Amino acid sequence: MTVTPVLERDALDTVAARIRAHVVDMCAGPEGGHLGGAFSCADVLAALYFSVLDVDPLRPDDPDRDRFLLSKGHAAVGLYATLAERGFFPVEELAGYGRPGSRLMGHPVRAVPGVELPTGSLGHGLALGCGFALAARYAGRDARTFVLLGDGELQEGSVWEAAIAAASLRLDRLVAVVDRNGLQLTGATDGIAPMEPLAERWRSFGWAVRDVDGHDPDLLAEHLDAAPWEPGKPSVLIARTVKGHGLPFLAGRSASHYVTLSPRNHARAVRALRDGEVAG
């Protein structure tokens, strides 16, 4: 397969805005959803699926495809919105999210085209990514494996066991992205289990590290395109983000973790996205 960017990169922010708009609509349904974490990683998802990943929606099981794992599986609404925009299934299907009979569940499942494996039991995605990267090596394929982790998820010891294994095995076709929004369900991550200096921590485990603005999809695409950054080393991109980014009444608040938007707040969110209001 040959990578052909779907859009010019100056349109990636437009894609990210559409992803967030779909997430808002899904979170206004009866089941609600993990809005905050889906919003914080929307720019990462836009960069990956519309500029970086070598995938074909018409051939989702192509053996030469790149693999993407949403280790923070609770942000499934963001992944669903991205896959629909990329053409893996009709955008209209998003309206059925969380309803009886829908395959769009609270965490991603393999029944959804483009989903590699069920995820959401936090701490497992990076180990699974190691397996995909090692399998590609043994098969003689150049495919890359990308894993998106939450920063609260880094409290799981299995993440660091996988990080050790990846460096030991020199899996330089493995790329991790940390959605560093600083919040988890019960509060600030650094108030629960401090992780800084996070970049140095990853370097000490043998990874090549870059630390960037997670709300600049052009910059994200540039860095992710360039991986592997150092021969023989897996790569990790620390994306500095804001939970609920784009919604002034929820941004930077733990309350955005899981929401069921009332009609009033749904309208507020739609207006905020339409007017381009961004919480700093």
Automatic annotation (TrEMBL):
Q: Which GO terms describe its molecular function?
A: magnesium ion binding
Q: InterPro entries, alphabetically?
A: THDP-binding, Transketolase_N
Q: Pinpoint the Transketolase N-terminal domain residues.
A: 15-263
Gene3D superfamilies associated with the record = 3.40.50.970
What's the name of the protein? Answer: Transketolase
Q: Which organism is it from?
A: Streptomyces adustus
